[in-house]
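Sample intake sheet
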Amino acid sequence: MGRMRENPRYNVISMRVSDEEREQLESLVRRTHKSVSDIMREAMEVFTLQLERQEMRKAA
């Protein structure tokens, strides 16, 4: 039985990428020593922040 986690993640999302995108992602994994999942979570966070900034600029 696995260890209990504070923030368990049960949802799995898969996506298709080109060979070049996969190489880019593998390079990021090697350079950052992070998992693909962690990199994708950070990318989603950065994208969300950028989108929120754009929306704030439009509303002003």
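Comment: Residues 36-59 form the longest helix (24 residues). The mean pLDDT is 93.
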